[in-house]
Automatic annotation (TrEMBL), chains A, B:
Its EC number is 3.5.4.19. Its main location: cytoplasm. Homodimer. This is Phosphoribosyl-AMP cyclohydrolase. Catalyzes the hydrolysis of the adenine ring of phosphoribosyl-AMP. Keywords: Amino-acid biosynthesis, Cytoplasm, Histidine biosynthesis, Hydrolase, Magnesium, Metal-binding, Zinc. GO terms for molecular function: magnesium ion binding; phosphoribosyl-AMP cyclohydrolase activity; phosphoribosyl-ATP diphosphatase activity; zinc ion binding. It comes from the Bacteria.
Amino acid sequence: MKTEIDVKSKDFIDKFFEKSELIPAIIQEFETNEVLMLAYMNRESMRKTLETGYTWFYSRSRQELWNKGATSGHLQKVVRIYGDCDNDTLLVIVKQTGAACHTGAHSCFFYEIWRDSGE
Amino acid sequence: MKTEIDVKSKDFIDKFFEKSELIPAIIQEFETNEVLMLAYMNRESMRKTLETGYTWFYSRSRQELWNKGATSGHLQKVVRIYGDCDNDTLLVIVKQTGAACHTGAHSCFFYEIWRDSGE
């Protein structure tokens, strides 16, 4: 299903790329509020995300646009997008099909490196 | 209350700064799972976060270390820290005192820029 971009959204794209060509996009699961991953968007991947309703990123290592799940089937259907207070980060709320992480884990943040000893 | 860094955590610091001097840290609230903000950590701010149990960041605009809430009182007590699958992003779970955002909003992501028309 294609989703329309409204005029307001088109105007917002430029605002997010004034400071940098690439901005971080936090991907959070709609149903559970679990943080699934972080990836980077450039102007074009943000535009394609808004046009298609599925997440597109820019891969810094491969230097190319990347439709999350295009090969694995683990697509992310976008439900909401929030900008932050200074317009340099996105919070993208998605319905995740399958696993978000390339390791097969549901979230990329499966690795606890520290916990407060009092908790 | 000071919290000890264990040896495992010390080893992990280096691993996160192999690709870049600065890595994004997603700040998520422990009680609600709300994503509050994103800020950047360098090696030193990660070390100070682990040592003190409160968040320290590196401000890209001011080019200095920054103890979140030091002036506003809106401290973030760290409960858990997760690394991601490729060791270049942190997910920091905190107990937030007051507002995370400098605007006074609880979360920096208060600005909805898009929603799926079907939701």
